[in-house]
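Hi R.,

As promised on Friday, here is the backbone we talked about, encoded as structure tokens. Could you run it through your design pipeline when you get a chance and send me back a sequence?
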């Protein structure tokens, strides 16, 4: 057992980081608490000053969160602190400032380029396997969707603008394409500066992403940032849970973690949307079901299980050095 404290968003105070009523995506942390016992796994607001707990920092560095980190450093100066880098530079560039890293005993990251097993250690993005949906029939599914927030960034290698490009392309072609989640018809910062036209494919924010994805044969599954080989987030895993075939881009070494017969690799079309559309339009039911079968087989392997719930929680605790 390890005495650990999770320094995270305020909504996870009072040990709500394992409350599946907030979001089922917390199930890996629910397993973490079960394995490590509740009295050994606390949210930061329950930590008493003199308790010698290891502080695991999951709170992303934003301008408004810096003050919380400053309070943490002064109030708990004697506690060991490990920083977990969930987000890439396009979302939280300040998290990658090496001066900030000096205030932490260790850094856990998905980025293999940083890993030296001295200061920087490998960490994979935990996934919740809350869904055991059966694949819906090919002919009952709609064609194509994209489910993401409408975000923007001026930082090099961002992929938000590529999502916008994909949306515009599919809207302008005679196909069944639906766009979901939040703020798509509200201008982001770039759209306020430049030209903006409302998205005709936009529907609404969904209550259950997995259930919505399960109604589509394919979904656009682009990461937030390119030129980040090891950055693999929930996007492709949500597709697998929903039994919807992902059209995936980035992580250039994705095949190291996930077999390439489980997804459509956008790179093979030289980033040409017409070639991509021609390809998926010509996938018949038999070929499509091969993708689904490959996904289902992969999810049963040890290679996949290490990303999920109990296996992730056990590995996480064992790897806290």
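Update: got your reply. Pasting your designed sequence below so it's all in one thread:
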């Amino acid at each position: 057992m390890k005495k650990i404290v999770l320094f995270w968003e305020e909504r996870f105070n009072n040990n709500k980081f394992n409350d599946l009523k907030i979001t089922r995506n917390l199930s890996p942390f629910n397993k973490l608490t079960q394995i490590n016992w509740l009295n050994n796994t606390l949210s930061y607001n329950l930590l008493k000053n003199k308790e010698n707990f290891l502080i695991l920092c999951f709170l992303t560095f934003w301008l408004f969160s810096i003050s919380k980190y400053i309070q943490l450093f002064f109030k708990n100066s004697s506690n060991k602190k490990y920083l977990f880098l969930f987000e890439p530079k396009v979302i939280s560039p300040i998290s990658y400032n090496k001066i900030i890293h000096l205030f932490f005993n260790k850094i856990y990251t998905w980025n293999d380029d940083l890993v030296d097993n001295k200061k920087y250690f490998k960490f994979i993005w935990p996934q919740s396997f809350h869904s055991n949906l059966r694949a819906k029939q090919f002919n009952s599914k709609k064609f194509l969707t994209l489910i993401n927030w409408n975000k923007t960034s001026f930082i090099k290698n961002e992929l938000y603008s590529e999502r916008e490009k994909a949306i515009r392309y599919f809207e302008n072609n005679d196909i069944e394409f639906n766009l979901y989640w939040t703020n798509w018809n509200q201008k982001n910062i770039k759209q306020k500066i430049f030209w903006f036209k409302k998205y005709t494919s936009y529907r609404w924010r969904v209550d259950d992403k997995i259930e919505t994805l399960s109604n589509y044969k394919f979904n656009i599954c682009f990461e937030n940032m390119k030129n980040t080989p090891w950055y693999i987030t929930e996007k492709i895993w949500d597709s697998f849970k929903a039994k919807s075939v992902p059209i995936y881009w980035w992580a250039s070494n994705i095949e190291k973690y996930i077999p390439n017969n489980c997804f459509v690799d956008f790179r093979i079309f030289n980033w040409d949307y017409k070639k991509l559309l021609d390809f998926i339009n010509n996938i018949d039911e038999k070929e499509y079901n091969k993708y689904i079968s490959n996904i289902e087989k992969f999810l049963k392997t040890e290679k996949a299980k290490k990303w999920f719930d109990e296996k992730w929680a056990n590995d996480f605790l064992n790897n806290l050095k």
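One thing I noticed while checking it: The mean pLDDT is 92.

Thanks again,
M.
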